Amino acid sequence: MCWRASSPTAIARPRRSPCVTSSSNWSNIATATTGNLWETSLVHDPLVLLPSRCAAVNRSVAVVTGAAGDIGRAIAARLAESHDAVLLLDIDGDALRAAAESSGAPERMVPAVCDVTSEESLADAASRAARLGRVKTLVNNAGAARAVSLHDTDGEIWRKDSALNLEAPFLCFRAFADALKESGGSVVNIASVNGLAVYGHPAYSAAKAGLIHLTKLIAVEYGKFGIRANAVAPGTVRTRAWEARAAANPQVFEEAKRWYPLRRIVDPEDVANAVFFLASDQAAAITGVCLAVDCGLTAGQAELAGTFSQSPHY
């Protein structure tokens, strides 16, 4: 669930880095392989091949996990406006390549297959990021929900949801902590309104509640290094994954709108706009917060307010 900026210009666009050039000379894909993680810098301007005057130390890098999904794609595209390179991490290689190629700035996208539950895989990713430049932004976006009720949740489901939705962001932060300390960077964790109240999916929800608290832990302990950590808690987001789950009831999105004060659900771009803001200098004094991007869901229920107040104005 997410908010939408009232205008695409509501948040100032940063200048394009002088280190990224526009050239039609690069047409091949540069690929490097190591262990269980591969990386490509796509089409026009492979960042790894930039002239020496643009040393890696001068390039800003954003890292986005779960980058092959709709929310991850939107976040990566938005962060490409303020970073010289965006390292896209996901376990689905084919979807990851498609995400990079279809982005609005493929020359800045560096896809890398990565298992975010594996410390070894994350260490490889951190090494790749260091070769690209200075990691300024880390977005822990990878996540998934399984059983819909506590009754249907067994130990295996609980452990898997906890591993992906809570342990993985912790491991990812550890892998990039030194780089973030050097840059005084920003962490944005994609939580959920499920971490704030009960909306089903208990294992996922408990993990997201833990992720919100992990965000505060990072903010308090690592603030002395200039690191800021914030969370975004989306409501129902219109994604292909959600649409697949809603196949049994094609009207589910329309039915859900009644619970949202804005009478709509969230789009991936709403989440991306929130991440962009929290990662930017405009949020320089904001850390340790959880921003609900939920079209008003957690603010209250108009229908319930109308019932209790007997007012026709809700």
UniProtKB/TrEMBL annotation:
CDD domains: SDR_c. It holds the Pfam family adh_short_C2. Coiled coil: none annotated. One of its GO terms (molecular function) is oxidoreductase activity, acting on the CH-OH group of donors, NAD or NADP as acceptor. GO terms for biological process: fatty acid elongation. InterPro entries: NAD(P)-bd_dom_sf, Sc_DH/Rdtase_CS, SDR_fam. Belongs to the short-chain dehydrogenases/reductases (SDR) family. NCBIfam families: PRK07074.1. This is SDR family oxidoreductase. It comes from Ciceribacter ferrooxidans.
